[in-house]
Amino acid sequence: MFWQAGLIGLAIAAPVGPIGLLCISRTLRGGPRLGLATGLGAASADALFALAGVAGSNALLHLAGQLARPLGWAGCALLAWMGMATLRRPMLEPAKREEGGVGLWRAYAGTLLLTLSNPMTILSFAAVAAGLSGGMPASGAQQLAIVAGVLCGSASWWLALAYGGGALLSRLGARGRRWLDAGCGLLLLGFAVLLAWRAAGI
After folding, report:
1. Closest CA to 182 of 119, 90, 92, 110
2. What is the rounded end-to-end Cα distance, in angstroms, of the chain?
3. Per the UniProt record, which residue ranges are transmembrane (predicted)?
């Protein structure tokens, strides 16, 4: 069950979305450690969602539905701010990256909050938990295996993206890095608009 949950965590993390763009942008600006810290914030949120899903609390699932709209708007605002910040900050030279970065803990916390702004993901993890446990309530050991698997699977993707992708990104020239970073900022703003549209329709 751990390995199945790990593959699910990997599948959830891998599609390119706002968190992936943030990871790429921050790897460009601050190096792989900053990119990894960004991704681990999302992995931690995925693990918390998995924990809520396997717990199967009806009250928690109801609360997730009630908070969907306000948290969606909060996530939209946070995403728009991150997109604008990406566009406005100058690209630093490699020697100055760690000194001028947003900081590992700040990157982690910001991504954690951004990912938690989508509480409807709990419903997805509730369905995943039911599928993995054969439709029966998951035992304590099964719940631990699912949560740990999701965390490790998601974290492994961010580790590969930050360090493996970072090695490829480092081969870009200064101009290429600036264009890619600007593209990430514009796409983040696009995701903010999409999130606002979804929040308005909830």
Report:
1. 90
2. 34
3. 6-24, 36-55, 67-87, 108-132, 144-167, 179-200
pLDDT, one tens digit per residue, over 5-46 is 788 778 778 777 788 888 888 888 788 888 899 999 999 988
Say if residues 107 and 75 touch (Cβ distance below 8 Å). Answer: no
How far, in whole angstroms, is CA 45 from its chain's centroid?
Answer: 7
Instruction: Classify each residue of 34-65 as buried b or exposed e, where b means 16 or more C-beta atoms within 10 Å of its C-beta.
Output: bbbbbbbbbbbbbbbbbbbbbbeeeeebeebe
Spatial CB neighbours of 71, under 8 Å, sequence gap ≥ 6: 116, 117, 118, 119
- d(CA 25, CA 18) in angstroms, rounded, equals 10
> How far apart are the C-alpha atoms of 51 and 143, rounded to whole Å?
7
The reported pTM is 0.75
In sequence order, which residues have a C-beta less than 8 Å from that of residue 154 and are 6 or more positions away?
9, 10, 12, 13, 39, 42, 43, 46, 47
3-state helix, strand, coil in the chain (%, to 5): 85, 0, 15
Token pair listed for 28: 């460009």
Rounded to an integer, what distance in angstroms lies between the CA atom of residue 93 and that of residue 195? 33
pLDDT per residue over 63-92, tens digit each? 666 666 776 777 778 778 877 877 777 655
| Angle 68-161-87 from CA coordinates, rounded to 5° | 65
